[in-house]
Amino acid sequence: MQNDHDVIIHVEHLNKVFQSIRGYWRQKKHPVQAVKDISFSICKGELFGMVGPNGAGKTTTVKMLSTLLLPSGGNATIFGHDVVKDTDKIRPRIGFTFGGNKGLYSRLSALDNLKYFAELYKLDPQTIEKRIKEMLEVVGLTGREKDRVETYSSGMQQRLHLARAMLHDPDLLFLDEPTVGIDPIGSREIRTLIRELVTRGKTVLLTTHYMYEAEELCNRIAVVNHGEIVALDTPASLKTRASSDSVIVIQTPTENPALQVELNNLRNDIAHLSNSHETVSIQTRNPGRILNTLAGLLESQVISNIEVRNATLEDVYVQIIKESTV
């Protein structure tokens, strides 16, 4: 069991309200609550994930915790310091990255970018060169450090973001969608780097849209929807929330009344059903009964293909989001 000394981030009833200006003359203020009364803690050495739809409040939460945005209410402490009152004590011990090329100067080289940020971090001038060299090696950019950032791929830019965030050797890292828009090889390299950070003793808060990434990396995952945490647990425990053992994926060319009739007859065997374009996904504890019933539709080509697989974290995520949206 973790004690108070192990808690790096502690959040109680945190919320954020933005004032959106509307109307023809843009004089009407309309409050938009981006984060609603969320509470959680992150322990030392933990890789904590936040997942949720676009606009769910993940980035807003990260910005409040990294002292870039003031909360509208609630409390949050990092290393025991208040994120509003003690920013000068928190900032030297945290690093953060946001997806994309924001935060880098594209017409400068990677080396010049890191020198600039090293001075902002007020690193010892005698150790700057050594520290930059170490970080370039860690993120695999040695040999390309004199090239302009604008010549870098998305994956290389994201690795440079990580190097910048780690320059001052922070204890806590906020990584907001670090693999967004990156090809599979680049994404794999970034995930390897993130795992290495944790082995170095860092604590990481990661946001992502990729469930396989969250499952692979995170000790615990918070599912966020409409500014609220609607589920929080380990990946394995979240998967047990699926009310079924199997998922049957049906490919059907069109919406067919015959299929709908059979699905209605099978409703007692269906734990969860979702439709997407020409695909129907069924979560069930009785895959055999459903397959036997639908076999005739497959033969008559009402159904073009049936696949059976185990429920994944993505299936559970979709189920949780849909249930919390109702």
Structural class: alpha/beta
What CATH calls the topology of the largest domain is: Rossmann fold
Global geometry: globular
- How many DSSP helices? 11
Instruction: Please identify the top-level CATH class of the largest domain.
Output: Alpha Beta
Number of domains: 2
Terminal CA distance:
36 Å
Which strand order does the major sheet show?
Answer: 6-7-8-3-9-10
Helix content: 25-40%
According to CATH, the homologous superfamily of the largest domain is P-loop containing nucleotide triphosphate hydrolases
Give, in order, the helices and strands: EEEHEEHEHHHEHEHEEHEHEEHEH
Query: What proportion strand?
Result: 25-35%
The radius of gyration computed from the alpha-carbon positions, rounded to a whole number of angstroms, is: 24 Å
CATH architecture group name of the largest domain? 3-Layer(aba) Sandwich
Report the uncertain regions.
Answer: none
**Mean pLDDT, as a whole number?**
89
What does the secondary structure layout of this molecule look like, with pairings?
Elements: E1 7-22, E2 28-43, E3 47-51, H1 58-65, E4 73-78, E5 81-82, H2 87-90, E6 94-98, H3 110-120, H4 125-138, H5 154-166, E7 172-176, H6 184-199, E8 203-208, H7 211-217, E9 220-225, E10 228-233, H8 235-239, E11 246-251, H9 257-265, E12 270-276, E13 279-284, H10 287-299, E14 305-310, H11 313-325
Parallel strand pairs: 3-8, 3-9, 6-7, 7-8
Antiparallel strand pairs: 1-2, 1-4, 4-5, 9-10, 11-13, 11-14, 12-13
